[in-house]
Amino acid sequence: MAETYGYPNAKSQDRLRRVARELIDHGVPPVSRIGSLSVDALQLLYQRASNPDSAADALKLLHELQTYQVELDLLYEQLQANEMETLEELTHYKSIYDLAPAAYLIVANDGHVIEANESAGILFDQPAMELEGKALSALLAPDQDAAVKALLGHSGESPSRGCSMMMPDQRRLSVSARKSRAGDSILVVLMEAPSAATGS
Predict the structure, then answer these.
(1) Cα 8 to Cα 154: distance, rounded to the nearest angstrom
(2) CA neighbours within 13 Å on the CB side: how many for 102?
């Protein structure tokens, strides 16, 4: 169903109306998850249905209201299905992020960590949640400020070229960054570089 944020366009609205009318014609009552007619509305319908002059119009109106109710129920079911699908996708990609073998940091434009995955916690030898709020430069060797500024300043929509940075314990890191589409944060990927001494 072609929709915008779960709301049907004109073509799918017509299809929704046809399905609703078919359900009504086959005697399927509205589920009424969204709501029901007020007492005043029901009394008004009853009065009109009791009057021979307006009975036909009242029955037509009642049928139309039932159709709308079924349409709303069908739309509600579709919204629930969309929400479940979105939640499953979010859970899937969240697990990919959390369990990635590389250290991932989501960093604000000012260089402070917004979020970190498990590998980042292992790399920096502290729980990932404790990395949040810390400046990226504070996690690296003291002389890395200029390299961090350059990395964050040159992170565009495509990944930056891998650059080398040092940890406080002199381990070397291969680091790259990419700005989010919204432009309000940067994904920084850090991997420990192979040791030159081992030749690996």
Answers:
(1) 41
(2) 14
Domains of the chain, earliest start first: 3-97 (no CATH), 101-192 (3.30.450.20)
pLDDT tens digits along 161-189: 678 999 999 999 999 999 988 889 999 99
**Rounded to 5 degrees, what are φ and ψ at 165?**
-135, 160
pTM: 0.60
